[in-house]
What we know:
Elements: H1 7-28, E1 35-38, E2 63-66, H2 73-96
Antiparallel strand pairs: 1-2
Amino acid sequence: MTEYTDIPQVNVLYGECERTQQAIDNIDKGGTLTNFTIGSPPQPMGVQPTPPIGGMTTPSTPVTITLDTPASDQLITDLRAWLVARQANLEQQLADLGVTSPPALRK
């Protein structure tokens, strides 16, 4: 049984599980990768370096790339395999929190 204090984490995992399952379903129905985002690099902990003379450094920001050609079949195959593994991991995290009916099992 899910603890009351775990409900916010369950909601996050449940939503991610639903989105992951939808992505797998889209690929299975012929969908392809149209864009992707590369996140910012992690910021080091502790004392930050002194900015250069003349101004502040520009922090890194996430970058979204839109593809103008279809993704390769191999990329889609690899992406689907990663999504399936991610789905299994999310379902295990939900099970560890006491959720007995994750989105993928409701179909």
